């Protein structure tokens, strides 16, 4: 999975743990290896062996890539006849998942530890499928639909025998998307509600449950989950267009993750969480710059990076050794916190 994680005992009881944040200056940052053509890739996930996956422009299209622990990058390629691919997640056993695209649409795929690529079955009638996460047991989740839209189509699960199952929608809803799964096979994502809104959702045993929003919340997405059921994501607040980073404890209670100390009311999104309960994502600074950040149930802490005008900056995944990957200043980078 993207972040195989267990929450500490205090948070596991549904209480808010108050931890001391690590100063940003304590984090080190290195650039991950570039593709053979000199271009930087985009990381999406890291496992507990510090192996990173993502994608990059290989010169002949966007290809899924993997960085080993020496930061060297390997092109994972595509299915035969396809032109592009993306790796979205990697588990402890170094099995990666994502998608491969060509003239006939987009297929969900997995790469074995040796790099062998295999297509996963699609839902009937679906032209576009992607695998978004894989847990340590090899259960995979993702999305299939008639388009690549993340707010249309259906959340799906691929079991270890390779079979695909459409996950149930919320009552009265028409679409869903699965973004993460933990070792207990609890799945998170989002789904449309009967009123047309978009709710953060968790599935367990195939049954979807909408997660509560912050006061004034109108849109919610759950983007990551750890093994004790801590979920992270964001809520969009009515009338502001601002996203607030949030976490839901294992009792389903929602709490806002504060922004950077110099911009507590600015936008933020939490994207992943590890066993120690450390969440990573992006927060907006007082100068309205998107800043890679992490949270330990305290205001966001900025991760060091070299600002580049117009560049997108975000931390996207963290493993259980507190190694974080993301993009900063148009570079693929890794932080240790």
From TrEMBL:
Q: Does the keyword Signal apply?
A: yes
Any signal peptide, and if so, which residues? 1-26
Keywords assigned: Signal
Name-wise, this protein is: Extracellular repeat, HAF family
Q: Which organism is it from?
A: Lentzea tibetensis
Q: What's the source species' lineage?
A: Bacteria, Bacillati, Actinomycetota, Actinomycetes, Pseudonocardiales
């Amino acid at each position: 999975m993207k972040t195989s994680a267990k929450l500490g005992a205090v948070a596991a009881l549904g209480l808010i743990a108050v931890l001391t944040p690590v100063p940003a200056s304590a984090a080190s940052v290195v650039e991950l290896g570039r593709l053979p053509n000199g271009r930087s890739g985009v990381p999406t996930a890291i496992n507990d062996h510090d192996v990173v996956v993502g994608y990059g422009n290989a010169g002949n299209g966007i290809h899924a890539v993997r960085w080993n622990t020496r930061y060297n990058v390997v092109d994972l390629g595509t299915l035969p006849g396809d032109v592009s691919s993306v790796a979205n997640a990697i588990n402890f056993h170094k099995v990666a998942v994502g998608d491969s695209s060509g003239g006939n649409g987009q297929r969900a795929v997995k790469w074995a530890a040796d790099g062998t690529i295999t297509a996963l079955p699609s839902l009937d009638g679906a032209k576009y499928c992607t695998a978004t996460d894989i847990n340590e047991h090899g259960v995979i989740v993702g999305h299939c639909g008639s388009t690549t839209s993340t707010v249309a189509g259906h959340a799906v699960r691929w079991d270890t025998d390779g079979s695909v199952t459409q996950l149930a929608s919320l009552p009265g809803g028409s679409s869903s998307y699965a973004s993460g799964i933990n070792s207990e096979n609890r799945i998170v994502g989002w789904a449309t509600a009967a009123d047309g809104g978009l709710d953060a959702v968790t599935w367990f045993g195939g049954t979807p449950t909408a997660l509560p929003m912050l006061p004034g919340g109108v849109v919610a997405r759950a983007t990551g989950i750890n093994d004790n059921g801590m979920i992270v994501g964001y809520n969009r607040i009515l009338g502001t267009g601002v996203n607030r980073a949030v976490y839901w404890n294992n009792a389903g209670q929602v709490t806002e993750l504060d922004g950077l100390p110099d911009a507590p009311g600015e936008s933020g999104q939490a994207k992943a969480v590890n066993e120690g309960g450390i969440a990573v994502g992006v927060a907006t600074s007082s100068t309205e710059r998107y800043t890679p950040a992490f949270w330990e149930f305290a205001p966001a802490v900025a991760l060091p990076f070299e600002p580049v005008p117009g560049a997108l900056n975000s931390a996207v995944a963290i493993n259980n050794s507190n190694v974080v990957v993301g993009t900063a200043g148009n570079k693929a980078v890794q932080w240790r916190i």
